[in-house]
Structure formats: C-alpha cells, structure tokens
Queue: 3 jobs
Job 1
Amino acid sequence: MSDFFAIVLSGSAHRVDRWGRRSLSCLASSSPAGASFEAALTGTATFDAGGTLVTCGVSVSAPGDGNNLVPEAPDNHNPDGAVSGAINAPTFEDCDTNMPLVNATVTVNDPVWEMSMLAGEPSTGSMTVPAGGIVVTTSGLASCTATVSPDADVAIAGTWTNGDPASTLAFDTTAPVVVEGGLGCPDTDEAGFTATYEVTNADDPSAPITVTG
C-alpha cells in the first residue's frame, strides 16, 4: 500500500494522510492496496416529515460483497472531481416516533448505494440513495408510508471530519419524499435527515481513515 492516496477539490490534488502509519482513503477495491471500512451511527438518526419524527438508535453500513472498500491507486485520485465507490446501504433499526401509540419501521429497498468523497473546507461525503431506496412506515394510531425520492436517485451530503481512531460523517440535510396515508399522516413533500456516523478501518481500527489537503 502506498504512503498516500489522493482525492481532489476544484482540480487540485488532496491526499489521505498516513498520520505516521498506514492510512486509507475513503473508498476502494479488495486488493492488498486497500482495506475495508465501517460507518456506524453514533447517537440517533432522525427523519423529520412535517414535524413527525422517526428516530432510530442503530444504523450501520458494514463491509462485504466487495463494497465499503478503499480504492487502489490510481482510482483513488480523480483530477476532475470526487472519488466514488459502492457501499452497502446502512440499516436502520430500533426506531420510534414522537407520536403516542405510533410505531415505526425503516426499510432500505436497495442493498447497494454509492458514496462520494471530496476534500475541502469542510470535506464532504455524499451517499446516493437510489430512487425509492428508503421507506418509512408507521403503524398504530397513524398508518403512513413515506418514500424517499420515489422517482429519482438523490444524493444526501454530510460533513467529513478527520479523527483518530474514528473519523465522522455528519448529516443535517433534506430529501424529497412522498407520503401516503390518512388521518395523522404529515402533509409534506420534503423530509429532514440528521445523523452522525463514525467511520473506522475494519481491518486495522488503530489506523484512522482520513481526508486531508
């Protein structure tokens, strides 16, 4: 594995810092030049559809099936923009609502998403949700179905912060949504999403995944 991996912002190269030891860029292949990474929720993930909140306590994107991998050179360097690759879609479990006697489940319909990383101030990470890729369903006193961007893929962008041993990817964004149901269901075409993920090196947790200029 080489000492540095490069990603770019506005045409200039940015490198993944070794921090004095082996370091990884953000996406990759299963070759010896790369390693796998995991993104695990810290705190809670919240979907906000018109004031109706669905909060989940567990969300993980784990490596497997050739996804969540650091790229080999030269694929980790893109002089024309972000570095992208496939990740396993995050799960959403242990979900609840802010409405009495209303339960919630979050279903991920497409098992593979795309993630893009771009170095800058701040650095950013974007997860592309396939069309209709997330469906939030409530039951009980309010039976509703909210489908995220049912007609087109949508990218949700977060802020990347280097850390040791875990870097973080924090989301505070919105996405288009279609809500179906009757009494008690929100009347909105947009849903908010807030969550912070800790990103760690699944092969060597002591070697942080970092993005630097």
Job 2
Amino acid sequence: MNNIDLSLYLVTDESEDVEKFLKTIEEAIKGGVSVVQIREKTADTLDFYNLSLKVKEITTKYGVPLIINDRVDIALAIDADGVHVGQSDMPCEVTRKLVGSDKIVGVSAATIEEAKKAENDGADYIGTGAIFPTATKDDAPKITKKDLKEIVDSINIPVVAIGGINLDNASELSDTGIKGLSVVSAIMSSDNPKKSAEKLLNIFNS
C-alpha cells in the first residue's frame, strides 16, 4: 500500500497549447494540487511520452506524484510515480505485476464489486464517478452520493470522487468519506488555476 495525499487530484485535459498546459499544472500545484494525472486519449505515443517528461519536471520540482492514465508503457518509460487504469484498460492485477510494488496503481470503479476487485488485485486507491454531469468524459457511468458512500464503506483503500466537480458543488461531497476531489475542467479551464485549486482544497478540508 502506497501512502499518497489524494486531497486535490488533478486530471489533465488535452491541449494544443503545451506551454499554457504546463503553466496551468504548475500554478495548480502551487495552489495545493497533491497529485497530477496525465490523460491523453488521442495523442501519439511519442507526443504522450515527450509531454509526460515535461510534466514530470514540474511534479518532481514540487514533490507531487505523477500518475499516467491507462498507458503502463509510458508510466514505465518516464519512471512516473504510478498509473491509473479504467475498467476497459489493462487489468489491475496485471498492471501491478508490470509496475511492481513501489508504484502507485489507481483504478476507476463505479460499483462496489469493481472497487472490491480492484482492492484485491492490488490497487492503492479508487477513482469513483461520475458524481456530477461532466463534459470531459461523456462515457463515464453516473453514480449517486449514496453509491459513492457505499463504495467508500465497502473497501479499505482510499476513494477519490471524480466527474463534474467544481467550486459550486464540491461541498456536497463533504459527508461521503472520500479522501480527495478529482477535478479536470475546474482547474484546467480556469483563468486562475492557482486560486481555483486553493478554493477547492479549502472546500474539501472544511
């Protein structure tokens, strides 16, 4: 079990402007982001690899874990801190064997059964959602606050909530037992990512 501060978990979106993308990530970390996950669903392998190296320079500078979405090969190639897999990606059990015991492995789970299986297969944490409507991942299953609490209560590893979380609704999750907020647009699309991160973290910690 890898201990990791999941309080404010940033998942990146795809951007044409690399400099702005990197600046947003750095400002968000300054505002309190505790984990960064790079999610690039359409990028070529070389582009994903090169971008990940640039992001790693930033996360290493601030001592923040870097997680790669889906691509175990990229995670290993850049020596990222971990990898996050979904239900249609590399199985968690296989992912754990590939990356070893020292890397962080996260799994997306929308049901108690999926969450328990992920825990048994070696996951360090679960990402559960979409808790609110989201534009960044339109194929994500929808879950209720009740579902979220039941998943949290069913396993012994931490859960982060994801899906449409923003400054207006984050406080609604305060009584669910989650260990963090996972956000995309609330920070990546913000005009002031540092301030947005600070506000989200304050909401989570209040």
Job 3
Amino acid sequence: MKIKLIKSVSFSAIHFVNPFFIVIFSKIEMMTHPVLETERLLLRQLTILDTEDLFEYFSLDEVMEYYDLNTFEDKKEAKNIILHFNNEFESRKGFRWAIELKSEKKVIGTCGYHNWFHDHFKAEIGYELNPKYWRKGYMKEAILPIVTFGFETMNLHRVEAFIDPANISSEKLLISCGFKEEGTMHDFFFEKGRFVDAKIFGIINE
C-alpha cells in the first residue's frame, strides 16, 4: 500500500492508495467529519445544500419500504434528517456520509454508522440509495472503505447490520462486502405500526 501526505484546506490528512479505494481522514478527536474517496464516489459530510438530492429519493415508496420512517412528503423532512445525521456525529454516536457521485456532483445516497457502542467496540451500519443508481455497484463501493474506516480509525471490532428478511438485495450486498448472516430475530422492531423481524449480519475485525 502506497502512502503519501497531502495538503487539505480543512485538516491534515493522509492519502492511502490501494486497488480498491483512497481514504482521506482526520482524527476523530478533531471533530472534523472524515472524507473518503473512491474511484467514482466522494463520501463526505451532509450539508443543507443536499436537501433536494435527499428528498428526491426519500420521497419514493420503493426506497422507504424497508426504512423505519414514512415516505417523505415535505423537503423539511429531508433537511431534518440531515441535521439528525450531523448531530449524531457531533455527539459521537455515529457517522453518516453523503454518497456523492463525482461525475455528476450529486448526492445519490447515504451510508454510515449509528448505535455506536464505544465500550463494546461495535456499531451498526445503515444505508440507502437513489433507485436511479441501483445495481451499479455504488453502495458496495461506499461500504468497503466505510468498514475499513470503522476498523482502522474508529477502533471497531464488530460492524453489524439489521435488515428485513424480505430485503434480498440488501442481503446480497452485505454478503458481497464480507458480512455473514448470524440469525433472525422475530418481532425485533416496531415500525410503522407493526412488529417486524430482522436478519442480523456481522463482520469482525480479525
């Protein structure tokens, strides 16, 4: 792996270059949101300027089918979720990256960590993607460096994901990223007025 020091206007960073991705990061203690870069994607902090891009797909039933929120009807809801994700980072409860497609300078989804249990060295990963960009490998391209960041910079030992058993596409995605299925919890979440099962997947830093 080649390593070279680069300059940044906002923080000192190190570029890690390997066949899969380039990672730019700052120390978590600096409270500067880390930026990750892949061949096609820029993974960065969400801003209010991303409201329109998020509302474009959070307002679609097909995106929200397995989400624990109702389909958005107002752009204020997109603004509020951006504020929520950024508050989670500021309170050290998690990270959420905007997935910006570099060729279009457009946010096509988000991915990141929540339920970060520092004492247990684990966090839960979550994600969603604009349907216009499904089945193009973008989410896998985002998840891989985010998991690496979790292991190498956040000092996570375990990353886990909970998905609806009917969400076959998400299951295939996680397996392709090295996660292993660990079982099914029945009536594990109460979402949109009903109890739902959850399949759990995990990956260990070994």
